[in-house]
Structure to design on (153 residues):
């Protein structure tokens, strides 16, 4: 393991335990050179979960890709990263529950959007504007109107 602070390859494991979700192992490590500590997470590498893109291509489910999209949508919003991690965990579980170990990205995106909609409306609109690929301002305004109508109810 390479130290993220000084790049040294020598380190020792200080503490090792199951992560909160129980699906990975959390290890606290200490660099032998700079003595700084850092945390790593280990997961079991299994048969990958797949997502089916709009054009029919199949792609490996990428937690980091979903989290990156959420982080961009929630930029400068008062949303804790832990909440975003929970959304990504639910999305991953949704893909894992499929008997074929794959889901269409349209279903996955819909799940993420509904989670965001209940969490933060601004983040939802940001995410939707990229995910739904609005062609013009009218489509964008229609989505905003739907949000406002739902808010009034």
């Amino acid at each position: 393991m390479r130290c993220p602070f000084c790049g040294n390859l020598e380190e020792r494991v200080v503490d090792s335990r199951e992560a909160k979700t129980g699906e990975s192992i959390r290890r606290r490590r200490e660099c032998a050179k700079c003595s700084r500590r850092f945390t790593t997470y280990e997961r079991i590498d299994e048969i990958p979960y797949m997502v089916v893109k709009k054009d029919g291509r199949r792609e490996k489910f990428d937690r980091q890709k979903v989290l990156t999209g959420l982080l961009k949508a929630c930029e400068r919003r008062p949303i804790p990263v832990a909440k975003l991690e929970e959304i990504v965990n639910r999305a991953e579980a949704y893909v894992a529950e499929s008997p074929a170990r794959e889901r269409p990205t349209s279903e996955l995106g819909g799940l993420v959007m509904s989670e965001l909609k209940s969490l933060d409306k601004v983040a939802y609109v940001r995410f939707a504007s990229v995910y739904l690929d609005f062609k013009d301002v009218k489509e964008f305004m229609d989505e905003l109107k739907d949000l406002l109508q739902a808010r009034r109810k």
Observations:
- The chain has two domains: 11-43, 50-152.
- The helical segments are 63-73, 81-96, 105-119, 121-131, 137-152.
- The chain has a mean pLDDT of 90.
- Residues 142 and 148 are 10 Å apart (CA to CA).
